[in-house]
Design goal:
The chain is an alpha+beta fold. It has 13 helices and 25 strands. The protein has a 6-stranded antiparallel β-sheet with strand order 10-11-7-9-8-12. Strands 18-13-15-14-19 form a 5-stranded antiparallel β-sheet. α9 crosses α13. The longest helix has 13 residues. It is globular, with a radius of gyration of 25 Å.
Length: 447
Amino acid sequence: MTEPSKVIHIRNVGHEISENDLLQLVQPFGVVTKLVMLRAKNQALLQMHDLTSAVNVLQYYTSVQPSVRGRNVYIQFSSHQELTTADQNSQGRKGDQDSQPNRILLVTIHHMLYPITVEVLHQVFSPYGFVEKIVTFQKSAGFQALIQYQSRQSALQARSSLQGRNIYDGCCQLDIQFSNLNELQVNYNNERSRDFTNPSLPTEQRGKSSQHSYGDAGSLYALQASGARVAFAQMGNAAAIAAAFSSGLPPGVTGTNDRCTLLATNLNPDKIDEDKLFNLFSIYGNIVRIKLLRNKPDHALVQMGDGFQAELAVHFLKGALLFGKRLELNFSKYPNITPAADTHEYAGSSLNRFNNNAVKNYKYCCSPTKMIHLSSLPQDVTEEDIVTHLEEHGTIVNVKLFEVNGKKQALVLFEDEEQATEALVCKHANTIDRSVIRISFSQLQSI
C-alpha cells in the first residue's frame, strides 16, 4: 500500500476529461492547491490542501466508483508527498515546450466561479515584481489574461510560485504559460486592461472591447476597480459553492455576475414590507440591506451579500407569485444601497442563513414550491399547533411532524406555491412558544 499523501494519482484520464472535470470530482472534500495533467500517459496528479482532505477522497471513492464523462477513473495515493515545480513542468503540453521564458505570461483561469478583473490579477501577481501591463479577454479556452512584468526574472518567479494555485478557495485555478509576445499594447485603463506605467490613458466607454487584437472581453460583467477589494472579502464562500454545485451550476446561472443589488417590481404595496422581503430573499444568500421606494410603492431594492447570491435569487424568484402579484426581478443599475433613514439594515442579522451551513443552504436553493420545511420548533409542538400557526395563509393539504437528531421539524404541503410562499414570508423567524422557527421551501413532491 502506498503511504497516504496529499497528492492523489488518477489513472485512465481520457483526452475528453478536462482539469475542471477532475476538480469537480474532488473539491467537495477540500481545497485543491495543484493539478498536473499527464496527457501522454492519460494520468493526472492532484494535490489537496491537507492530508485529511486527500484521505477523505480515497475513503469515499473506495466504495464508490468514480466516473467522469462516462469513463471510469482510478484513484490512489501518489508516491509524491508534494508536487514540485519540476512535476508541474512535466505536463508535456506542446505550448509549454515551445514557449521560451520571457517577461509576459499567458494566464488561463479554470473553474471560474467568480469574475476576475485587472485589480484582482494585479493583487495576485504584483508580489513577484513590478507589473507593467495587464490585458484580460475571453477566448475559446476560457477567461485569459496577458501579464507583462518589468523583468523576465519576475515572470519566472511568478509562474513557479503560482502555477496550479487557486485565486479563491476551491475555484479560479491559474494555468500559466509564457507568451511569445514581446510587448503588450494597451489603449485604455479600465477594468479589462491597464498600463501601470501610463496612468493618463483614457478609460474608454464601458462595455466596448478594449483589446480586439487579444480577444473579446465585452461579454464579461466587470467589477469596478474601487470595489475589487470588497469583492475579495466576499469570496470566502467560494469553497462552499464549489462543494454545493460540484456537478455544475443550475442551468442559466453563469457564476460570473458581480452585481449585488436587485430591483424587485410589481410588489403588492399593501402587504409587503422589508422583513417579508428579507424572509424570501435570504433563502438564496445573505442580505445586506433593503429599501422600499416611497415614490414607487410597488418597487424595492434588495442588496445581497455577493453577485453569485444575487444571481441565484434572480434565477429562482423571477416570476414567482407573491400576494397576488407576479414578481419581476432584475439587476439594479446601483452597485449598492446607500444607508439612510428609510433603509433597513440586515448585514449583522443573526437571521442571515448563509452565516452557517453555507453548503447545505446552497444545495437547498430552489424556486418556490407547494411544500415548506419548518425547523427549530419547540419540542412539545403538535401538528395542530402548526396548522393553527399557518392556516391563515392558504389551504393546508397535509402536515408531517418528525424528529432529526432529537429536534422537531415539520413538512407542510399547501394547495399551491403562492400560498406556501405567503406562509414563508410571513412566518419565517416568527415564534411558536418562544422558539424562533425557520422556514424554507422543500423540493419533496409529497409527504
